[in-house]
Design brief:
heterotrimer; A mainly alpha (about 210); B mainly alpha (about 210); C alpha/beta (about 325); B: about 210 residues; mainly alpha; 6 helices; C: alpha/beta; Rossmann fold; two-stranded parallel sheet; 15 helices; elongated
Chain lengths: ~210, ~210, ~325
């Protein structure tokens, strides 16, 4: 029951789905339509796991008065306050509403700017890394840096001022040598995905069973 | 601008600066923002999961007395919660097994088609047809031979020696380095773009010194 | 160079990185005040997306997926706004979707900015509930609806480019999980996957759903993504039902997808802010917009920042080799 049933679910589910692809019959289409309406419902419940784990983690931090415990309040309060806000001002759910409420405000004025700014900080770190880490130590590293410089200049308008050859060369690198390298990598990824699919369906890969009540 | 919008711009600007303060040094304001973002995004996701999935696709049809079969995915979904009770936690493997197995089964033939067959098909192409400009012909040759060379580089079951495997893998690594160089150039570009976005917000929406 | 010993180079390489941060900060702020307006020449990759949408009309339909999170908003949002403007100008119905909850909110923001008639050059939104009486009177076709709407005394706000009727010109379908399966499900029926839109309006009753019941009736899907989620449209949409797909992806990912352009699995790609800027240029050239938008404005800054970063790489290498650090086992590092 603990291992065999979930493994069987994966096996039977996987095989049925592969077979239905090759049989374009109404019955197989009906099975598939049921599946596409059921699976999102199942996955919707997975959010409870995330909310539960985060709540538990920060609740323990709060109770044990661990270092920086006050920040746990900043995590827990919005998790439960956001649904309450949304319940009272349901009109704001669509985003960008004419009569936005606090729910909308917390998203557009707190969440979005913070997350966008966090990602934008990488600009500073990549500049610092450009100065400290990118060394033309070998021939291959030099090739990498040269390709990077040509593409970087080719992608910005100032490249056009230096000469039309610069963006043209940059574009050529992207369309041909870059394409060949990426295609080889993507083919590797593709074969890897196919192998993983089969390994999971046939129970060779069982990592997903782990971590549940052992 | 309404009061709501003005307040919004100021709050957003405050948090933007709070995050940037980290560049000078770590501080409590940064930490507050960092923690808030976790809470708000989860809270937002709870609302949307209810509003977009559980209510219209499960609760509403059940309440209307239609589609009783939806009890099955609902039960399966509820099993996720057993994760929090160590004695029955193994039950949470059921929904995972169902979604994982079926997901893999669905994607297998399509992955094969989109990621492998179509890609191989587009690599085996004529290099030169009359009227092709030289740069395109050269490029096409690079695609055909270069993909092969880069594949040889990733093929570790044979030693990289001799005219085929040796030369092939050496050409392959050169191409891979050019590819990584292009990615690096684009990465720099992307990071700067994200910063430009925030600077535009601060200068135009908040300080209103540019249009 | 003889005056500079290894110690000086070492000091230079170990400069407090906050000075570099400050420099980058200055470099991305200053060019906003010195508008250079350098020309942005559109590439074939972007042009092919633009040209395809430019052939579509009111009886066609496109999907635009806000498949990114706020982290990459600066790159992806201008693409979404540009595509929306283009489609709304041509009255091409747009289905708006999102693969993550946060994406739905960003789609809402993108739509809101195109519907903000306080700024000229935008579109006037008519919500689903607002034109209910006209629906009841049997006006479902776009032309008859617009004529009846204006005959009822509704005047287009000054500077607005046209009306956009919710349910006729666009439907904000919002977020659904397991979008790969949603795409497959939409191969049979779009309405079955999205019973309601984000405001709770009934999707099956919308006129645009009558003409476009499933993905086979859709002419293009544009996925704006900051992750490999964009590939779902290719794997599940293009491979299964032949859905034409265009990418609007972040610069970091863009180089990975050139193979799919060459293989014809995607019709084209906007890569990063530059891609969005190119689309804005094409729209202005095509007469859809009076002026280019935020992405184009960012390109001057982008130019200067690239030059500075290239100089940093060169300077770092000069210091590294001139200081002889390539011969030493390790450079004493200080943060």
């Amino acid at each position: 029951m603990k291992r065999t049933v979930p493994l069987m679910l994966a096996l039977v589910g996987g095989v049925i789905m592969i077979i239905q692809y090759f049989i374009p019959h109404q019955v197989s289409q009906d099975v598939f339509d049921y599946y596409t309406s059921w699976a999102p419902v199942v996955s919707g419940f997975a959010l409870i796991l995330g909310v539960g784990s985060i709540t538990r983690l920060h609740y323990h931090k709060l109770r044990a008065r661990e270092k920086n415990w006050p920040f746990s309040i900043a995590v827990l309060v919005p998790i439960y306050l956001m649904p309450i806000f949304a319940f009272f001002v349901p009109a704001s759910l669509g985003g960008g509403s004419e009569f936005p409420g606090f729910f909308d405000f917390m998203y557009t004025r707190v969440q979005v700017p913070i997350q966008a700014t966090m990602f934008s900080m990488l600009a500073f770190y990549i500049a610092s890394a450009a100065f400290r880490a990118f060394r033309a130590k070998s021939l291959l590293a030099t090739v990498l840096l040269l390709a990077a410089v040509i593409v970087m200049l080719g992608q910005v308008p100032v490249g056009d001022l230096l000469g039309r050859w610069l963006p043209d060369t940059g574009q050529w690198i992207l369309r041909y040598p870059n394409l060949a390298a990426k295609r080889a990598i993507e083919l590797g990824v593709g074969f890897g995905m196919l192998a993983t699919c089969l390994k999971i369906i046939f129970g060779v890969e069982r990592g997903w069973l782990g971590g549940a009540g052992r | 601008m309404t009061f709501y919008e003005t307040a919004g711009v100021w709050v957003a600007a405050l948090f933007t600066l709070a995050i940037y303060s980290f560049l000078y040094r770590e501080n409590p304001l940064y930490r507050l923002a960092e923690h808030l973002v976790v809470g708000v995004s989860l809270g937002y996701s709870i609302v949307l999961t209810w509003q977009r999935i559980l209510y219209p696709r499960l609760v509403q049809p059940l309440a209307a007395g239609q589609e009783w079969l939806l009890i099955i995915p609902a039960t399966l979904g509820l099993l996720y919660i057993t994760r929090f009770f160590p004695k029955v936690a193994w039950l949470s493997r059921y929904p995972i097994g169902f979604l994982l197995g079926t997901g893999m089964g669905v994607s297998f033939p399509l992955d094969m088609q989109a990621l492998v067959l179509r890609q191989i098909h587009s690599t085996v192409i004529p290099v030169f047809t009359p009227g092709t400009p030289w740069d395109v012909a050269l490029g096409t040759a690079v695609i055909v031979l270069g993909t092969l060379a880069a594949l040889i580089y990733f093929f570790f079951s044979k030693p990289h020696k001799g005219p085929f495997f040796g030369l092939g893998s050496r050409v392959g690594i050169w191409l891979i380095m050019i590819g990584f160089g292009a990615t690096f150039g684009f990465t720099v570009m992307g990071r700067i773009s994200l910063l430009i976005g925030r600077v535009q917000f601060l200068l135009a929406d908040w300080l209103r010194v540019i249009h | 160079m003889s005056g500079m010993n290894a110690n000086t180079w070492e000091k230079m390489l170990n400069i407090d990185r906050r000075w570099i941060f400050l420099m980058i900060g200055v470099v991305v702020i200053v060019p906003f005040f010195i508008r250079m307006g350098l020309p942005v020449v559109p590439t074939d990759e972007v042009r092919s997306v633009y040209s395809l949408i430019d052939t579509l009309e009111a009886d066609d339909a496109v999907f635009v997926g806000w498949d990114f999170d706020p982290g990459t908003e600066a790159e992806n949002q201008p693409m979404g706004i540009a595509v929306l403007r283009h489609a709304f100008s041509r009255h091409v119905p747009v289905f708006v979707t999102a693969v993550s909850p946060l994406g739905q909110g960003l789609a809402g923001q993108g739509l809101a900015s195109v519907f903000d008639t306080r700024t000229p050059g935008n579109f006037a939104l008519v919500r689903w509930a607002d034109w209910e009486p006209f629906r009841a009177a049997g006006h479902a076709g776009r032309d008859s609806l617009e004529a009846a709407w204006e005959a009822a005394g509704n005047a287009l706000p000054e500077g607005a480019l046209g009306w956009v009727f919710e349910g006729v010109d666009f439907a904000h379908l919002g977020y659904q999980p397991l979008f790969s399966l949603v795409i497959l499900g939409m191969g049979s029926s779009i309405a079955a996957q999205y019973p309601t839109d984000v405001s709770g309006n009934p999707v099956p009753e919308m006129p645009m759903l009558h003409a476009h019941k499933n993905l086979r009736d859709v002419d293009l899907a544009v996925t704006l993504a900051g992750s490999s989620a964009c590939m779902w449209c290719v794997i599940y949409g293009n491979a299964k039902v032949g859905l034409p797909v265009a990418f609007g992806v972040t610069a970091v990912m863009a180089t990975d997808y050139f193979p799919y352009i060459q293989s014809g699995q995607i019709v084209g790609m906007m890569g990063g802010l530059r891609g969005a800027a190119e689309y804005e240029v094409l729209e202005t050239e095509g007469g859809y917009t009076q002026a280019t938008g935020n992405a184009y404005r960012g390109m001057d800054v982008q130019s200067l920042a690239h030059i500075v970063i290239i100089l940093l790489v060169i300077l770092g290498n000069i210091a590294f080799f001139a200081g002889g650090f390539h011969r030493k086992t390790a450079l004493k590092a200080r943060r």
